[in-house]
Amino acid sequence: MRAAFPSPVIPASRIDPASLKSLQYYPLPNCRPDNVTGTNNYITRPSTRTDTNQYNVLFDIQITQQNKLFFRYSQSDAVNMGNSPRI
């Protein structure tokens, strides 16, 4: 079994430097958490809105034993408004 840390804080020498560097991109809490565990302590509105409609129509018709007809129609409409988040 591993020995526990002397305090409830992880010593700085045990934290990976790459992890420390990545923390600068992680947002700080901006609201009160739901409970004592600190969950749901950050609220944001998405900076992008995507509205996508896609339609596909497919027909396979066998006219005779030797003749077949194939038809496909596809349409895709995409709307993206706003700025994507910067990292």
Q: Can you put this structure into words, describing what you see?
A:
- By secondary structure, the chain is mostly beta strands.
- The model has no long low-confidence stretch (mean pLDDT 83).
- The protein has a domain at 47-80.
- It starts with 16 loop residues before the first helix and ends in a 5-residue tail after the last strand.
- 7% of the residues lie in helices and 34% in strands.
Write the layout of secondary structure elements.
Layout: H1 17-22, E1 48-62, E2 68-82
Which labels suit this protein?
mainly beta; two-stranded antiparallel sheet; 34% strand; elongated
What's this, in brief?
The protein has one helix spanning 17-22, and strands at residues 48-62, 68-82.
Strand order of the largest sheet: 1-2
Strand content: 25-35%
The pLDDT mean sits at 83
Unreliable parts: none
| Distance between the ends | 40 Å
H/E element sequence: HEE
Fraction in helix: under 10%
Q: What structural class do helix, strand and pairing data support? A: mainly beta
Largest sheet data: 2 strands, antiparallel
Rg over CA atoms: 27 Å
- SS summary, helix count: 1
